[in-house]
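To assess whether the prediction recovers the assembly geometry, we first specified each molecular entity separately, as shown.
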Amino acid sequence: MTPSGPLRIGVDIGGTFTDLVAFDGATGALSMSKSFTTPSDRTDGVLEVLVEGGVSLGDVSQFVHGTTTATNAVVERKGGRVGLISTAGFRDTLEIMRINRERHYDLQWASPVPLVPRRLRFEAIERVDYRGRVVTPLDAEALAATVAQMRAAGVESIAVCFLFSFMNPIHERQARDVISRVWSEVPVSISSEILPEIREYERSSTVVIDAYVKPVMGTYFENLERRLASGGMSCGVTVISSGGGIVPVAEAKATPVRTLQSGPAGGVIGAAHLGEQSGYPNLLAIDVGGTSFEVSLIEGGVPARTTEGFIEWGIPFKIPLVDVKSIGAGGGSIARIDPGGLIQVGPDSAGSEPGPVCYRKGGALPTLTDAYVTIGLIDPSYFLGGRVQLDAGAAREAISDQIADRAGMTVTEAALGIVRVAEASMVGAMRIVSTQRGYDPRDYAMIAYGGAGPVSAVELARELGVGTVLVPRFPGAFCAFGGLCADIRFDFVRSYLRRMEELDLDALMTLSEELIAEGGTAMNRIGVTAVPIMQFTADVRYSGQNFEVNVAFPPGPVTDATIERVIDNFHAEHLRLFGHHKEDEALEFVSLRLAVIAATEKPEFTPPGPRGSPEPKGRRTLFSSSGQVVDAPVFDRSSLGVGWALAGALIIEEPDSTVVVRGVNDSTIIDDLGNIVVSVAESG
Amino acid sequence: MIDRVTLQVIREGLVALCRSMGHALSRTAYSPIFSEGFDFSCALFDGTGEMVAQAEFNPVHLGSMPYTVEWTVKEIGLNNLDEGDVVLHNDPFRGGTHLTDFTMMAPVFYDGRLVAIPAVRGHQIDVGGSAPGGFPGDATEIFQEGLIVPPVKVYRRGHPVQDVWDLILANIRVPKIVHGDFRAMFGSLKVAERRVQEYCRKYGPDTFVEATDEIKNYSERRMRAMISALPDGTFEADDVLDDAGTTLDPVRVTCRLTIDGDTITTDFTGSDPQVQGPINATYGVTASQVYTVLFQVSDPDMPSNHGAFRPINIVAPAGSVVNAESPAAVFGGNVETSSRIMDVLLACFAQAVPERVMGGCFGTCQNFTGGSWHPELDEYSIIYVYHEGGWGGRASGDGLTAQINPVGNDMNQPVEIFESRFPWLYEEYCINENSGGPGYNRGGLGIRQRMRALSASSSINLIADRFRHPPPGTNGGRSPLPSAGGHYNDFRVKLPDSEDFVHATEAFGTVSPSKFAGQVIARGTVVENTTTGGGGYGDPLDREPERVATDVTGGYVTAAAAESEYGVILRDDHSVDSEATQATRSRLRQKAE
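The predicted structure of the complete assembly is given in tokenized form:
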């Protein structure tokens, strides 16, 4: 896995574009290219972007891949035909879900279609109780007959989820043995391996997603490997995992659920790495594309993590994840005058098809992007470096018809209003995310990427009280860059539900040894010989609570002192997260987690050297955040070198993004790594 | 005057603030009702006690929270609210719903001026009274239902009023859990306080207060615009509750809806007088249903605040089952009568805008509660299980299967969480097959849960309904068929020494099969809760035969019902026998004429 040759490649497949970032180890040069994503066979887009970037596959020493293929398979319901086996009496868990609905008052709302239809949901006679004791032994004979039935029904992939398998996996393991005995070829996913955690619906959903995308992902990865190899690439493909590490493609094929959100995770890893290097270890990372707005938090150079994600409302997957919260806004968010006479932006989006009005692909409703174009935040003739011509007139007309006329405003007022309302709802959503995680945005710098991120970032930062905004090089392809910064990483978890005063230290010690062994095995399997980093954490809660707080668990022998540290860590973290704690309250230990990490060599790229004081390529009228009309200079980013600095409102354009600084009191520099760094004044 | 972009920025910000309150609450709560179930609501009121913003957590709290805060302000007086005060309150006859729903509120001051009152309402797992976990199905007056807490300060200038806390917690069976949940509620008020003060700093308190006023005016305009788009007219509907628990007589709820320009009147005159049983609804409960249904049929995204309620006139005679007076028992009013109020309102709107409503819902929350000693955890524990069921078919498609009653939007408690905490073992939790009302768009299906008691002795309570009167269909759709036990929604037990499931009337000798309290069962008893599906929408004989075939293959509809209700004849492999289907359908159509 250690890069042997000079060329390291990161490729990220997004909804609209497939991005490539190449790092030449010999020269330190970093380059970027883009091509359109090809939904019918996404490997086409990968091959195209390699050609676009002039990459000779024979020179490639490392290929890191982030992809949304698994997510798309679920969203489009194009996965394999899964058969699910549940504990007898519980085959409908997948359809009953959590009995709530996404929209409170909408009587026409439709709940998500289960990934496994009822006729392919089967049951096994077995039962384990809450302490992991066998209540009813697994009826293997009946199960064998069920498997034959599944085979006859055309099942391509089997998922198994039994109640309390996270406390005692014996029946799930026996079931897997029975399946492989009577039908050895069928892929099997068992819940106790993928997610040994409490809550049967979430666990079922996760194991079903794994089984559902397995056939699709297998085909996709094999196809990709074959095409790259026949193009002359000799190194293996590695894939960014949801947890923000990289794993060999074989691991991704075996447990594809762990590659969900792999692209966004790459971006956050890149942000963390760049932040550390630039002196900003605490970062709020925002990734804004045409249809999405994603927020993550990085503290002390370490991305915040979670264990729950959603593919769509009601379809959760619970795996170790870099915490990327999608807050459903973006350039495609539609603006309208609501029945009460106020401007409303979103939550619906024109997406990339038909997209904003200015794309001229059939969109008739004005969007945030149309507002950006109308007030000059985006140059219609330089979108994607001029690759796509935007129709500013059409955008203006739509805003005039749909917003300005109806509200009695000028077009400019309406467009400014759309931008302000959209930015306010982004800020509101970011605040909710911050409440959930209990941090204060003012303690952080912001890093902005994705095509649309740098347009609004400075204003969002001002509103949140964030003092610094960082825009990295190639913000539009940043997720592809991030993959090159990722370490090899595996995450493991074991449930161990006990009140703190009833902990069996020996049992806990055994558990930690098991996890270490498991981590060692995984690293050996992929050929890592160096001693990996082992990071233990524990999930702890007040006895009786239902949600846990993840805290550091000291390494080494498990003693009373270990537990005392864990308790201290918990109280401190609970106070930080929720603003209160209660030291005399009893605690419960819930699970032990282990991250096994093998560090990789990070790209040390050469930033563009000093270029003096270039002339702006033009000037544009901007409305500053305090409402003043400003004549702002427009620069081409490639003309700006390290050390460049300028005060006041300005625009910096590059082919994949536009950085807009709207504050007359802000100041902007290019730092030693080539990042644009904006000091955000309290009042713009 | 405040410009409308700033107004929208603040308005959306205040809704986000209420959502933040809820997230803080759910993450720190003790009982699964909060953290898993989300049975709570968060709202922001202005300095005069009128609601300006609310987050979408639980609709049944929607309309009643304003009355609670209003009442508190009236009773305590705005001048008597100091910085650092927190008021707690659960009295149904002072704007509340039922005794387990506690509202906590705190004034927020900026520069000494009262600018806002955030409030949070949550369902506490126990409130004393005769039934562990609440819901005594045999109560005849509120004093049996638990501890009544009128608006009292539980924090005074930042300090807890220990005497009051002690008094409240001494009346609760599980004080540690309830106290923990109160702390979580308190924490969420603190989240709101910080944000309100930030707004005042940023925009100035005058602009903030002006914005809260204008937000109400905005919602009023929006609501009037939506009402104007509805056809004018008067529409009437009535329905019944099975019984009041203490007798078997049906209890009538009736509504006359008048849409007139940009105002609406819902007149419940003619509904039965309040009854000697726990199904009386307070005014707040009735108002909640009116607002909820109006949001459902007009604008599901309507920003909920005081202004939205102004164009709505509610006539609910005092002393009736839809506006009960003390000392009426009210526990089930919030969950059962509320459902029936929603049913009659939707039936009225079905005549005005059929494409916007749905067939009748399963129409109960089927609250099953109980208390028992956990033999292994060695502690007293209380369960509170509400049950989901099927919703009616609608113009856009089949009804929703296994959904919480539309009066709420709570989540269920996972079996694994439940069993880790309580001495019960689930034997089954599945879809109640064949329970959807037949229709061109079928009603969604209900569910069935069976759980075995593991404690030596458990005391159990039930408040449920629509056992004997099924949900109606709409637009030619039909009511569901009865469930296996003979009722629509149903409750049965299998006693340890028996092979058969029997109704509570037989097992315990209760008056009502759907409402009782304090029945003691032994270890090994299996409890079965069943819910029915929703009513159908449109004529089932028009449903495409392939859709019926898919339902049969999936086990949602039996082959027998496919024939008798839909007139669809399937071969052994579930393919449609078109000829036989045509013949059967024309025969059924003739019969219907």
